[in-house]
């Protein structure tokens, strides 16, 4: 039996948030960056497990009222992104489909082969422009997960706070005081 073909035409203008509602729910991740549509395939199981483990570590350490959400839509200037993890401030609204950047203290991207360039270059610049105070990028190495930590500097770009690997758990202050230990996550 043949699969139905989804036919659509790109808008004759920059992509907007409303256009995302017209796209198929096929598991792909549809994001808008500076008015252009970016499509990535669904993440694999290893990616999802790593994101789940990091989300749980953040949730267990979170002060009351803070939320740690997987794959929530995020509005940024001229863009609609879907970070793997968003840490949402206690006073942020609890309804709606899209987070506002001002309500987010940290975004985390778990690298996949299909998202590596966006996670390293494109998305951090959009997150910085949106004013999100912290950005973490997680990559897998042969030794286990490595977390690259960044902090917004002068409101325009991220400055490295260093890396945390499976052999060097550390005590952090962002987004709140907590111990980060990647050795507890899957390899």
From TrEMBL:
Spell out the residue ranges making up region: Disordered: 163-187
- Residue span(s) of domain Putative restriction endonuclease: 18-175
- Which Pfam families does the record associate with it? Uma2
Alphabetically ordered keywords of this record: Endonuclease, Hydrolase, Nuclease
What are this entry's molecular-function GO terms? endonuclease activity
The family database entries (InterPro entries) matched by this protein are listed as:
Nuclease_put_TT1808 (IPR012296), Restrct_endonuc-II-like (IPR011335), Uma2 (IPR008538)
Give the protein's recorded name.
Endonuclease, Uma2 family (Restriction endonuclease fold)
Annotated organism of origin: Micromonospora marina
